[in-house]
Design brief:
About 35% of the residues lie in helices and about 30% in strands. The chain is an alpha+beta fold. Helix 7 packs across helix 8. The two termini are about 35 Å apart.
């Protein structure tokens, strides 16, 4: 059993969990506060050699001030113009990583930075490229197109180079607050994103956070600034920005949910496994204690998500469970089984028996196998769930369910409209498939209707296929109405995607593509 506090740390926006790094730091000293010898001596004792660099040619005018062969890191003093009365102290690349690690270890004496200002901070991320992914050149060309159409930049603010070192695009002006570099070197399979940030007021605030050891807030603000700036400028339809939207999607979803007048009309979900025909077999027991096989499929996912929303409005007690020396907090819900049934269906003995099996099935952890993220699986696992049958005829069935406390504080990446509970089985399977495909990391959502027909658990006639296609169009209309998708559509024709103005019964026979709409105005 996972410690809930351990999960909270993992779920926060921090450099380690997101794979983001500080890549450059520049501190400015005026002449009255600059003490070069003191800084050189101080950082030398921390394992940093010292160099001085003058002028703007990065390959010339370097002077070693103090160095030792066993030292692995370095600081660099810069004096761009001898007329100016200030000096810069630079930490670049691995030197910046090391400096920040020392800060977090509380090994930096900020007195040596007295009178200084943080004037530049670079954040970076490296994304691995898979051989199955589209060419980087296409992504860069599409980026250029978006920049030229963007209100944020002018044409001269974009540069695309293909040279002996590799591919690189530069967005912005180095004299401005923001400047982006995105590149892939010839010798590796990583796409590197680097962001220079030079806003004096914001950097002053970040410097104060550093000095006061408020690392959670420091890292969160840097991550959001970095990813939001990328999201506002890069094409979202390419896989190379998936990590950006993975970070900002829960925040966008929360803003969306807070703006909803009636939140009961929506349910929240985490990322799902998109495999439509996936099934899980579990062992359950009937009223006579006999074991039988129970099949869990995507339909139970929808019921599970509804059930979590149902629990949010119930009273509960708190309790704890311990496992291997770790104690976790739980909410314990005790309720009449029919109260959940009445929110979904007309109460009858058949539906009550199905719901009883559903409650008992949750304790087998089969349902969490349909979700994608390990952390969510950990906190959504339900350790205890049962239904007590009364010995007296006519008495209600009482369910008891233990649910992890952190699940109710979890930042879900998706808030999706609920659909009618009085749907046919055909329509319900469409919505189950829709939810699985939509609740994925990609902005681009592909709905392969031909594949849906092939994997359907029963033979479909032409009338049923028409009903299914119509239900897909209802889903598109529903999500368009609440602005969860862009008005940008494609249809599948053979092995290609073709852009269309609208989706119709006639043009979606093979399938279609929609694009998720994410709010990037989070500051």
């Amino acid at each position: 059993m996972q410690n809930p506090h351990e999960f909270e740390v993992k779920s926060q926006l921090n450099f380690k969990s997101q794979g983001i790094q500080i890549d450059f730091l520049a501190f400015e000293f005026d002449q009255s506060s600059f003490n070069g010898e003191s800084l050189i001596d101080y950082f030398f004792r921390l394992g940093f050699n010292a160099f001085e660099h003058t002028g703007y040619n990065k390959h010339k005018n370097w002077v070693a001030l103090l160095e030792k062969s066993t030292h692995k890191h370095q600081i660099v003093f810069r004096q761009p113009n001898v007329v100016r009365d200030w000096r810069l102290l630079h930490f670049s690349g691995g030197n910046a990583h090391r400096f920040y690690a020392l800060v977090k270890q509380n090994r930096i004496d900020w007195n040596v930075f007295a009178g200084s200002k943080l004037t530049r901070l670079d954040t970076a991320y490296s994304r691995s490229i898979k051989t199955s992914e589209p060419p980087i050149e296409d992504f860069f060309i599409e980026t250029e197109k978006r920049i030229l159409e963007s209100p944020y930049h002018k044409a001269q603010d974009f540069k695309f180079e293909n040279n002996e070192k590799g591919l690189i695009i530069r967005i912005g002006n180095r004299k401005h607050i923001h400047y982006l570099r995105i590149y892939k070197k010839r010798e590796n399979l990583d796409l590197r994103f680097e962001h220079e940030f030079k806003s004096k007021p914001r950097l002053n605030n970040l410097f104060n956070l550093l000095k006061s050891n408020e690392f959670k807030e420091f890292e969160k603000e840097n991550i959001l600034r970095f990813t939001i700036h990328l999201a506002q400028r890069l094409p979202c339809s390419y896989c190379f920005t998936d990590w950006v939207y993975f970070i900002i999607r829960p925040l966008s979803s929360q803003i969306f949910r807070n703006q909803i007048v009636n939140q009961s009309l929506y349910y929240q979900t985490d990322y799902m496994d998109s495999q439509f025909n996936k099934i899980v077999k579990v062992k359950l027991f009937d009223q006579h204690g006999r074991e039988f096989d129970h099949i869990v499929d995507s339909l139970q996912i929808l019921q599970f998500l509804r059930f979590l929303e149902f629990l949010r409005n119930l009273d509960y007690q708190t309790d704890q469970l311990s496992h291997n020396g770790i104690t976790a907090n739980y909410r314990v819900f005790v309720f009449e089984l029919r109260t959940f049934l009445e929110t979904n269906f007309t109460s009858n003995s058949y539906q009550m028996a199905k719901l009883k099996r559903f409650i008992e099935m949750m304790q087998t952890q089969a349902i969490i196998q349909f979700f994608h993220e390990k952390n969510f699986k950990s906190i959504s696992a339900i350790p205890l769930a049962n239904v007590a049958e009364s010995l007296e005829v006519g008495q209600p069935l009482i369910a008891t369910v233990w649910v992890s406390e952190p699940l109710f504080r979890y930042k879900f990446p998706f808030s999706l409209p609920k659909f009618s509970t009085n749907l046919t089985k055909l329509a319900t399977r469409v919505w189950a498939y829709w939810t699985q495909q939509f609740a994925t990391k990609d902005i681009k959502k592909v709905f392969n209707i031909s594949e849906f027909f092939q994997n359907y658990p029963a033979q479909l006639n032409s009338k049923q296929k028409q009903v299914i296609k119509n239900e897909f169009l209802k889903a598109v209309e529903c999500y368009s109405k609440v602005q969860l998708i862009d008005q940008k559509f494609q249809i599948i024709e053979g092995q290609e995607f073709k852009s269309v103005e609208e989706l119709t019964l006639q043009n979606i026979s093979q399938g279609f593509v929609i694009y998720e709409k994410i709010n990037t105005n989070l500051f």
